[in-house]
């Protein structure tokens, strides 16, 4: 016999996992961190819809905004890359988090 509490807990768990979705993430310059193509991004790719921009750096504010906008990113990741305020001001409202990646 399943108790009401157990059934409610199982239902909440099922509903929350069914509703949960992975946020879109863009790594603007993943080539800077993964210069030898040996890093494994699988864990973050399991948690997000991850898009890589396999370059060392992006400097043009218009290009940065276009990449972020096209990816519909909620999370923007960089590695040792300046994000000009002129680009940040034009990020879409979908962006909720900016992250600086590091290796330790």
Overview of the molecule:
- The chain is an alpha/beta fold.
- Helix content is 39%, strand content 15%.
- The protein contains five helices and four strands; from the N terminus they run αβααβαβαβ.
- Strands 2-1-3-4 form a four-stranded parallel β-sheet.
- The longest helix has 16 residues, at 4-19.
- 18% of the residues are buried.
Shape verdict: globular
* Strand-residue proportion: 15-25%
Provide the spatial order of strands within the biggest beta sheet: 2-1-3-4
Low-confidence stretches: none
H/E order of the elements?
HEHHEHEHE
Q: Describe the biggest sheet?
A: 4 strands, parallel
Radius of gyration: 18 Å
Indicate the percent of residues in helices.
25-40%
Number of helices: 5
Distance between the termini: 50 Å
